[in-house]
């Protein structure tokens, strides 16, 4: 009896001992916002609530003193700025504000925890109940700090020449032409709903995302949508399917990986941050970045997630987040575990983590949802763009920052998986970081045309649209529409 009980409790031990989460990288979309077609775009109250709730979920999971799986070494109530890094593209109010709202959920006002006693015994509590100030660092843009939210042409603003060419190729592909022709009547039929903003000449597949975005915003916020009876469930569904097809086409192509430069750059940033935690025995355990849905899509493609489900080719919902956990079962009481004892787990929530608990998915077409750290690194390295010289090379850029960055690089293999880029000191720096930031505007790729109509007064005919749009975009690249 007694020995059986002892055996049972022994057997239960490994199960009972919780895993330790050693590091975490969160990449999140912004919350609900006003439509791209109606400038300036703002985070709505609903959107702020979504990201705030998401941040609160991450707090209850990883940060609070009673968190489910507390992040090793992370301060619970009072933020320690050395333990985390937060990034969002500059001059993008929607993403910057989303990051701030998320952080308020993650580290709410500290109240009594922030109260300090002066020498003369007076107690002082910081303003706003001990509001915690967490800087959101900007990801610099290669495109001369242009206002991303308003810049016209996504890949153009990224400065990655080869990616621009690749995305343009989508717009002249047979897939695109077929979708354009097949959906022309559908979009024209929507005009009574959208003609306050979209001209008849703009009601087509070219603006699939911008129109979807506009109608979706109206369905949530507008009490008086013109001809709203046209917006049946079937029509709304079709609108979303078309928008998804269009955005996926721009974000990823399995035989032309440069199109997914946004995901490749994010992968490089994730590798770099996680390595800092593993190799640095702790380092900054928490990294958070806010960015656009286009980054999700291109990363999904690169990580072979669409093999699990076509859902991964659809635009993710507002406040969606993906999280990469560094986990171990090894003891952490006397030393930080070595890389061999560390694994990586991937989670994704299609919406605010507070309402859609992040689920575990296997990456890279593998079966396991828990990958040895070394496997994760080698798989990610197959497509990750790790540093500036690498970015310059795959993007075919030699000017600007690339002129200096490339001087140190020798003839590494042409495969983007090359692991040999160890010759430079820089981490992800300006041009690369800029891609992530610039891709925020993936959302506008189609809206671009809309902008051009409204602000440049260009009348684009169906035949010449592509060339005209490109010319206009080039002219607009630095402009704030
Ligand atoms: C965004 O906010 C600005 C300033 O408050 C306002 O002028 C603008 O109309 C808002 N945009 C939309 C689409 O509501
Ligand atoms: C204590 O010191 C603070 C800061 O110098 C001052 O504002 C406050 O009036 C002092 N309180 C008393 C009771 O002296
Ligand atoms: C993907 O790339 C291939 C090869 O470049 C091309 O033939 C195909 O049309 C592209 N597909 C799309 C949707 O762009
Ligand atoms: C939009 O369409 C409706 C219904 O067809 C029409 O009455 C209205 O005049 C149109 N508005 C514009 C700005 O074209
Ligand atoms: C919202 O409703 C107003 C009428 O109250 C209409 O003029 C406007 O076009 C609508 N906006 C959208 C995005 O449907
Ligand atoms: C349309 O979809 C909404 C939300 O999913 C649902 O509540 C409603 O019943 C649907 N309407 C019809 C006519 O199917
Ligand atoms: C990982 O980090 C360590 C320590 O910071 C550094 O020496 C090493 O070069 C990094 N490795 C990679 C692949 O980035
Ligand atoms: C997320 O939800 C959107 C909207 O419902 C859908 O189009 C997309 O495919 C979903 N993505 C995933 C990965 O589930
Ligand atoms: C830790 O052990 C549990 C129970 O055996 C297992 O389910 C889990 O995957 C392990 N985690 C890691 C990181 O190895």
TrEMBL record:
Keywords linked to the UniProt accession: Membrane, Signal, Transmembrane, Transmembrane helix
Signal peptide: 1-18
Coiled coil start-end: none
Claim: Magnesium is one of the keywords in the record: no
Annotated Pfam families: His_Phos_2 (PF00328)
Cross-referenced InterPro entries: His_Pase_clade-2 (IPR000560), His_PPase_superfam (IPR029033), Histidine_acid_phosphatase (IPR050645)
UniProt GO MF annotations: phosphatase activity
Homology family: Belongs to the histidine acid phosphatase family.
Name of the protein in its database record: Histidine acid phosphatase
Organism listed in the record: Xylaria bambusicola
């Amino acid at each position: 009896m007694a020995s059986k009980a002892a055996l049972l409790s022994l057997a239960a031990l490994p199960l009972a001992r919780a895993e330790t989460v050693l590091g975490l990288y969160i990449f999140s979309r912004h919350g609900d916002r006003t439509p791209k077609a109606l400038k300036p775009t703002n985070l709505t109250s609903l959107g702020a609530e979504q990201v705030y709730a998401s941040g609160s979920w991450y707090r209850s999971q990883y940060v609070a003193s009673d968190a489910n799986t507390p992040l090793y070494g992370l301060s619970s109530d009072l933020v320690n700025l050395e333990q985390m890094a937060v990034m969002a593209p500059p001059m993008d109010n929607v993403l910057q504000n989303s990051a701030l709202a998320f952080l308020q959920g993650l580290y709410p006002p500290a109240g009594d925890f922030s109260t300090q006693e002066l020498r003369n015994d007076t107690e002082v509590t910081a303003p706003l109940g001990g509001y915690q100030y967490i800087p959101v660092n900007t990801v610099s843009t290669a495109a001369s700090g242009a206002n991303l939210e308003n810049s016209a042409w996504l890949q153009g603003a990224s400065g990655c020449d080869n990616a621009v060419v690749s995305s343009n190729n989508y717009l002249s592909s047979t897939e695109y032409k077929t979708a354009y022709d097949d959906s022309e009547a559908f979009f024209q039929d929507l005009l009574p709903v959208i003609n306050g903003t979209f001209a008849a000449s703009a009601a087509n597949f070219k603006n699939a995302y911008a129109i979807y975005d506009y109608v979706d915003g109206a369905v949530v916020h507008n009490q008086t949508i013109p001809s709203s009876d046209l917006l049946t469930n079937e029509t709304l569904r079709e609108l979303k399917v078309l928008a998804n097809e269009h955005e996926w086409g721009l974000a990823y192509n399995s035989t032309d990986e440069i199109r997914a430069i946004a995901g490749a750059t994010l992968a490089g940033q994730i590798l770099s941050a996680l390595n800092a935690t593993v190799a640095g025995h702790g380092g900054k355990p928490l990294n958070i970045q806010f960015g656009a849905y286009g980054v999700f899509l291109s990363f999904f493609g690169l990580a072979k997630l669409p093999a699990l489900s076509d859902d991964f080719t659809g635009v993710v919902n507002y406040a969606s987040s993906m999280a990469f956990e560094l986990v171990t079962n090894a003891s952490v009481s006397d030393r930080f575990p070595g890389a061999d004892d560390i694994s990586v787990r991937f989670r994704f929530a299609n919406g605010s983590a507070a309402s859609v608990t992040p689920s575990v998915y296997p990456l890279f077409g593998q079966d396991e949802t828990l990958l040895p750290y070394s496997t994760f690194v080698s798989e990610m390295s197959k497509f990750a763009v790790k540093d500036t010289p690498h970015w310059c090379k795959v993007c075919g850029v030699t000017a600007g920052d690339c002129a200096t960055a490339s001087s140190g690089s020798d003839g590494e293999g042409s495969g983007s998986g090359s692991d040999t880029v160890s010759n430079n000191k820089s981490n992800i720096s300006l041009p690369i970081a800029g891609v992530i930031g610039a891709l925020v505007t993936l959302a506008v790729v189609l809206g671009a045309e809309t902008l051009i109509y409204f602000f440049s007064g260009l009348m684009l005919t169906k035949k010449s649209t592509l060339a005209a749009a490109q010319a206009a975009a080039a002219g607009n690249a630095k402009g704030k529409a």
